[in-house]
Amino acid sequence: MSDTPRGSQWKTLDRDLNRISQVEYATAYVARPLVAPGIALAFIVLAGIAAAVFFGQMPVNLVVVSAAVFGAYMAINIGANDVANNMGPAVGANALTMGGAILIAAIFESAGALLAGGDVVSTIAKGIVAPDAVTSPEVFVWAMMAALISSALWVNLATWLGAPVSTTHSVVGGVVGAGIAAAGLSAVNWPGMGAIAASWVISPLLGGAIAAAFLAFIKYRIIYRDDKIAAARVWVPVLVAVMAGTFAAYLALKGLKNLIRIDLGTALLIGLGLGVLTWGITRPLIRRQSEGMENRNKSLKTLFSLPLVFSAALLSFAHGANDVANAVGPLAAIVHATEYGDFADKVAIPTWVMVIGAFGISFGLFLFGPKLIRMVGSQITKLNPMRAFCVALSAAITVIVASWLGLPVSSTHIAVGGVFGVGFFREWHMERRLRQMSTIPEVKRIAKEERRRRKLVRRSHFLTIVAAWVITVPAAAAMSAVIFLILHALVG
Question: Looking at the 3D structure of the chain, how many domains does it have?
Answer without folding.
Answer: 1
